[in-house]
Amino acid sequence: MKKIISILAITLATLFIGCGSAKLSPAQQALIDNQTLLYTQVGMWRENGKIVGTNYATGMHIPVNSEVKILAVNAKIITIEIDGAKINYEVFTKYTQVDATTMISRLFSMKKVSLEALSPATKENVLNGAVAMGMTKSTVLLSRGYPPFHATRGIESNKWKYWRNRWVTAYVTFKDDKVVKIDGAVS
């Protein structure tokens, strides 16, 4: 019996340590405490109650400027409410190369992203999570979100790697800040 209790205690301790708290700034903590209405700054996908930080393009697309509230944050998960549904954003720092607090700043803001300067075709692509030839890096980010940085050197790089799902990848190649080549299914 003591052995079972010891194993259970170690397992619980490991779970709690693995989901440690995130070091939120006072402003970020206030967003949670006040249930502040925020807007997504990039497109992302949700499936089965979660959004994966590796940014798979599966499930339902959540377009830029969607209304959200942050409900809770720990080192691995940002829990948000969108359209009345509770969704867990799984940060996966190993792949995103940023922590939960940086991810909050990257994904959410109290201000909407202005889409006024976009052409009708680009605006449609952005709102539908699509990537097309001629789009700029900034509009690809608005549409598709950030590529996982374990496989893309950064947004200043001219070749970004995205995952459609766990097994299918795609590359978006830029020249002079415009998409010039798409290899694979980006979205």
Number of helices, counting only DSSP H or I runs of 4 residues or more: 6
Give the quaternary arrangement of the chains.
single chain
Distance between the termini: 52 Å
Q: SSE order, as H and E?
A: HHEEEEEEEHHEHHEEE
Low-confidence runs (pLDDT<50, min 5 residues)? 2-19
User: Which strand-content bin applies to the residues?
Assistant: 25-35%
Radius of gyration: 18 Å
Question: How many structural units, i.e. domains?
Answer: 2
Organism: hydrothermal vent metagenome
Protein name: Lipoprotein SmpA/OmlA domain-containing protein
What does this protein look like?
The protein is an alpha+beta fold and 187 residues long. The protein folds into two domains: 21-109, no CATH class; 120-183, Beta-lactamase Inhibitory Protein, Chain:B, domain 1, CATH 3.30.1450. It is built from six helices and eleven strands. The strands form three sheets. Strands 3-7-6-5-1-8 form a six-stranded mixed sheet. Strands 9-10-11 form a three-stranded antiparallel sheet, with no helix packed on it. A two-stranded antiparallel sheet has the order 2-4. Strand 5 (67-73) and strand 6 form a beta hairpin. Helix 5 packs parallel to helix 6 (137-144). The longest helix is centred in the first third of the chain and has 17 residues, at 2-18. 28% of the residues are buried. The model is unreliable at 2-19 (pLDDT under 50).
